[in-house]
Specification:
By secondary structure, the chain is α/β, with parallel strands linked by helices. It contains nine helices and ten strands. It is globular and about 50 Å long. The structure holds adenosine-5'-triphosphate. Pfam families: ABC_tran (PF00005), BCA_ABC_TP_C (PF12399). This is ABC transporter ATP-binding protein.
Length: about 240
């Protein structure tokens, strides 16, 4: 069974179609890459999937259940969690307290939330920063904190919005390994927006390409890189 079905999703902002009749499915455990030029509609689609915007048309179906109209907190409780392109941790709180905010979606116990948070802080390898103020972290560690925070919500589907943006090659490699480790554990399905083509080719089982709000192509990475329409719309414009 598909864990996520996107059925003819459109999102209009006035006269602008940020998403236009987008459809695809994701199976459990896979990594779906979502690519496209700037302004193609990738983040808007994340927003429609996770309840930040209601789609103007179409349906988002998660584990067989229609999600349209549910608020982000309800969507999160059902098992979807997303990161934000612009990372904004709670700057005056420590790293562990930031991650606990995610864990508190699953438990009312501060003690349990702290344990859950520390577990995810270890997964992203930020133990040495656990008691630092989040506002003082460099960008690479902020991105890891963002991932720990969403992992602490215990998601079934993780949506990562440019988690490698602004990172140096070594930091990007750490995030790639983290995404692949999450996949290997087999419990979490992932959708990843990323501009780094080499990274997206390495991690994705399948890729959806958006262009001007529409789905331009979908397929395995090797087919996407050799698709002439994709090369013209996206790779050619690099
Ligand atoms: N809240 C909004 N109100 C009006 N227009 C919006 C809104 N959010 C996004 N848009 C527009 O919708 C289009 C798609 O934007 P979106 O951020 O989804 O693209 P993207 O593919 O994520 O781009 P990028 O790679 O630059 O992050 C753009 O033209 C953008 O200006």
């Amino acid at each position: 069974m598909a864990i996520l079905e996107i059925k003819h999703v459109s999102k209009l902002f006035g006269g602008l179609a940020a998403n236009s009749d987008v459809s695809f499915e994701m199976t459990e455990g896979m990594i779906m890459g979502l690519i496209g030029p700037n302004g193609a509609g990738k983040t808007t689609l994340f927003n429609c999937i996770t309840g930040y915007y209601p789609p103007t048309k179409g349906e988002v179906i998660f584990e067989g259940r229609k999600m349209n109209g549910l608020q982000p907190d309800a969507v999160c409780k059902l098992g979807m969690a997303r990161t934000w392109q612009k990372v904004r941790p709670l700057a005056k709180m420590t790293v562990v307290d930031n991650v606990m905010v995610g864990a508190l979606c699953r438990t009312n116990s501060i003690k349990v939330a702290r344990e859950m948070a520390m577990e995810q802080i270890r997964v992203v390898r930020l133990e040495h920063r656990a008691n630092f103020l989040a506002g003082g972290l460099p960008i690479g560690e902020r991105k890891k904190l963002e991932v720990a925070r969403v992992l602490a919500t215990n998601p079934k589907l993780l949506l990562l919005d440019e988690v490698m943006g602004g990172l140096n090659p070594a930091e990007s490699e750490e995030i790639i390994q983290l995404i692949l480790d999450i996949k290997q554990k087999g419990k979490i399905t992932q959708m990843v927006i990323e501009h780094d083509m080499k990274a997206i080719m390495r991690i994705s089982d399948r890729i959806v390409v958006l262009n001007s709000g529409e789905k331009l192509a979908e397929g395995e990475p090797k087919d996407i890189v050799s698709n002439p329409e994709v090369i013209t719309a996206y790779l050619g414009s690099e």
